[in-house]
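Review this fold:
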Amino acid sequence: MPTEKKTPWYIAGLYFECQQCGRCCSGPGEGYIWVTRPEVKFIADFLKETASRLRRKFLKRVGFRTTIIEQPCTKDCMFLRKIDGQKRCMIYSVRPSQCRTWPFWPSNLANPNVWNKAAAKCRGINSGKYYSFEEIEKIKKEKWWQIAKQTPIS
C-alpha cells in the first residue's frame, strides 16, 4: 500500500526579507555553522588567506564536519562584526549555504509553531518578499558554490 505524501504546511508560500540585523548569527545559544570544502576555498580566497590558515584561525572539526568557530563570550559567528554600529557579516558574498538558506531550514519549516518561534528572533520572517513553495524547495536544495564556479562572485 503506497504511503500518502503529506502536503507541507507552507504550500501557499512564506514571506521573508533579511533585515541584516545579525540575529541569526548571534548567541547566546551555541550552534554550528557548517561549511563544506568548496565553501572553505571561497571564503579563504575572499579573505586572501590560504585554506589551511583559514582552518587554523576560524574553523574547527566536529566529528567528520567543519564549522566556523564562535566568539567565546557572545557565541556570535566569528565573521559577524560590528561595523558602523551594526552587526555585519564580513563574508556575506561568500557565506556558507547554511547561512544562505536561512530561514528555510527543515527545522524551521517543521510546522507553523517553530516557524513563528524563529520569527520571534528574526524580524525578517513573515515580512517582505514572498517565496512560493517551489522557490523555498529550490533554496533548500541549492548548492551556491556550484553556480559560483560558472559566475564570478562580486
Notes: The first strand starts at residue 14 and ends at 16.
